[in-house]
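Priority: medium. Attachment 1 of 2:
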C-alpha cells in the first residue's frame, strides 16, 4: 500500500472515500457553472452576402454563409450551397456579414446617480442593449457579485460576458466629481498584504480578468506603488488572466508598463509623452483601449441628441427621456472634472491618432455605463470619436473584432468554418464605414437571432 501522509494513514478507507466525495461536492458547489451548450436545431443560410474579414480588412463579395447549432459550417461562393428544408434561408443581397464587436471595457451595473434608462438594473436587459448595438462580447470591469451571478446564469442569445470583479485602486483613488458608484467593489491596495482578501475572493468567484487603476486626483505619480502593481500583474498572469490598467496620463501609463499589463485603458491627457509611450507599448506587446467616449461625450462635437437620433432604440429606451434625465447634469459634472484634469478634445484625439500611426495595437472599449456613455449607444459613439480622430475603418474594426476578442481570450473572428456563429448582418460597407457595424440589421449570437430587429 502506498505510504500516505500520517493524517491520512489514520483514516479508514471509508473515511477517505467520504473525504473525497465531500471535496468533490464542495468543488462543484463553488465552481462557476460552465457555459451551456449551444441549442440545437438552429440552422441558417445567408445567400449572396458580402463577408468582411476584420483580420485582413478585406471584403469578399457574393458568398454563401451557413451555420448550424452555434457554429459556422460553410463560407462558400454565392449560390453554391443549396437550400434545405430544415435550414432558414435569408437573402443577403445588399448586406454584409462580419463578426460582432467586442467591448473590452463596460460597466453593466452601476450603483451611483444614474437613471434606469441609461443603466438597466437587470443583467439580461443590460446585455440585450449591448447586443442591439452589434456587441457580441463584453468585459465588465466592476460589477457587483450578485449581478455577476445573475449574468452567468443567462443562456445563449445574449453577448458573452466576462467579469473582472473588484477594481484594484489606491486609497482615495477613482473618485470623480463626487460620484463613487464603485465603492462596494473597490479593493484598495498599498501593500502586498492588501491583496490577500480581494485575491481570495477573485479566486472564489473565478474572475476572468484583473483591473486596476493607477489614477488619483491628488497624486502625479502612480497611486498604486509600482512593486504592488507588478505583483498584481504576476498574480493575474499566473492564472492566465488579462491584466488591464487604467491610466489617464501617458506618463503614468508608461510607468505602469513595468507591471507588464496586457492593455492600458484610458484617454491620455498628455500628448507630449505619447511617442515614448507608443514605443514602449509596441515593445511590451501591450494594447491600448482609448475609451474616448468617457471624456469626449462631455465635450460633444455635435449635440448629444444627434447621436441618439439614428440609434435603433429598444422598446424600453426612450432617447428623449434619456437625454433630458441625465445629459445636462452628467455633462456639467464630468466636464468640470475633465477641465480640472487638463482634458482637451483636440489633444485627446491627437494622442489617439499618434499611437495608431505608430502601430500600437488598439483594443475596443467604450466605458459604457459611465456618465454619458449609455448602454447601446457606447459602441456607436466610440466608433464616431475614433473616426473623427482619424483612425481608418480597418483599424477600428480590427480593434473591435480582433484585438479585443484576443484580449478576452475568445476564439473565432473571421466567420470561417468552425468559428462560433456570432454574426452581424449590416447594410452598407464596413470596410468604408465602421459605424455600420454598430447599426446592425440582424444579429445572431451562438446562431440564435437576437429579437427586436426587423
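Attachment 2 of 2:
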Amino acid at each position: 500500500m502506498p505510504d500516505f501522509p500520517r493524517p491520512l494513514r489514520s483514516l479508514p478507507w471509508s473515511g477517505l472515500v467520504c473525504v473525497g466525495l465531500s471535496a468533490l461536492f464542495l468543488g462543484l458547489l463553488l465552481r462557476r457553472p460552465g457555459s451551456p451548450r449551444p441549442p440545437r436545431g438552429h440552422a441558417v443560410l445567408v445567400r449572396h452576402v458580402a463577408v468582411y474579414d476584420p483580420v485582413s480588412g478585406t471584403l469578399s463579395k457574393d458568398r454563401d454563409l451557413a451555420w448550424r447549432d452555434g457554429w459556422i459550417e460553410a463560407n462558400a461562393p454565392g449560390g453554391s450551397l443549396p437550400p434545405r428544408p430544415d435550414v432558414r434561408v435569408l437573402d443577403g443581397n445588399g448586406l454584409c456579414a462580419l463578426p460582432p464587436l467586442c467591448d473590452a471595457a463596460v460597466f453593466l451595473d452601476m450603483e451611483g446617480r444614474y437613471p434606469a434608462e441609461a443603466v438597466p438594473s437587470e443583467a439580461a436587459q443590460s446585455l440585450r442593449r449591448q447586443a442591439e448595438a452589434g456587441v457580441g462580447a463584453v468585459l465588465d470591469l466592476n460589477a457587483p457579485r450578485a449581478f455577476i451571478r445573475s449574468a452567468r446564469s443567462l443562456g445563449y442569445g445574449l453577448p458573452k460576458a466576462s467579469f473582472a470583479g473588484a477594481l484594484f485602486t489606491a486609497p482615495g483613488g477613482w473618485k470623480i466629481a463626487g460620484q463613487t458608484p464603485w465603492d462596494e467593489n473597490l479593493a484598495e491596495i498599498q501593500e502586498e498584504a492588501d491583496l490577500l482578501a480581494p485575491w481570495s475572493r477573485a479566486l472564489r468567484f473565478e474572475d476572468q480578468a484583473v483591473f486596476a487603476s493607477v489614477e488619483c486626483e491628488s497624486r502625479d505619480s502612480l497611486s498604486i506603488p509600482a512593486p504592488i502593481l507588478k505583483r498584481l500583474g504576476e498574480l493575474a498572469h499566473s492564472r492566465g488572466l488579462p491584466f488591464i490598467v487604467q491610466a489617464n496620463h501617458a506618463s503614468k501609463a508608461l510607468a505602469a508598463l513595468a507591471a507588464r499589463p496586457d492593455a492600458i485603458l484610458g484617454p491620455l491627457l498628455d500628448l507630449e509623452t505619447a511617442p515614448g509611450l507608443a514605443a514602449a507599448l509596441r515593445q511590451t506587446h501591450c494594447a491600448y483601449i482609448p475609451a474616448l467616449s468617457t471624456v469626449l461625450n462631455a465635450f460633444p462635437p455635435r449635440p448629444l441628441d444627434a447621436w441618439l437620433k439614428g440609434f435603433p432604440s429598444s422598446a424600453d429606451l426612450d432617447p428623449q427621456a434619456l437625454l433630458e434625465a441625465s445629459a445636462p447634469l452628467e455633462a456639467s459634472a464630468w466636464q468640470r472634472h475633465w477641465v480640472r484634469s487638463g482634458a482637451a478634445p483636440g489633444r485627446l484625439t491627437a494622442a489617439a491618432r499618434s499611437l495608431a500611426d505608430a502601430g500600437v495595437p488598439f483594443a475596443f472599449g467604450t466605458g459604457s455605463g459611465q456618465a454619458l456613455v449609455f448602454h447601446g449607444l457606447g459602441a456607436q459613439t466610440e466608433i464616431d470619436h475614433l473616426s473623427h480622430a482619424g483612425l481608418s475603418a480597418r483599424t477600428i474594426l480590427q480593434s473591435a473584432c480582433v484585438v479585443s476578442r484576443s484580449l478576452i481570450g475568445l476564439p473565432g473572428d473571421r466567420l470561417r468554418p468552425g468559428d462560433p456563429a456570432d454574426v452581424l448582418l449590416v447594410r452598407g460597407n464596413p470596410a468604408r464605414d465602421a459605424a455600420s457595424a454598430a447599426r446592425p440589421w440582424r444579429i445572431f449570437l451562438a446562431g440564435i437571432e437576437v429579437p427586436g430587429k426587423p
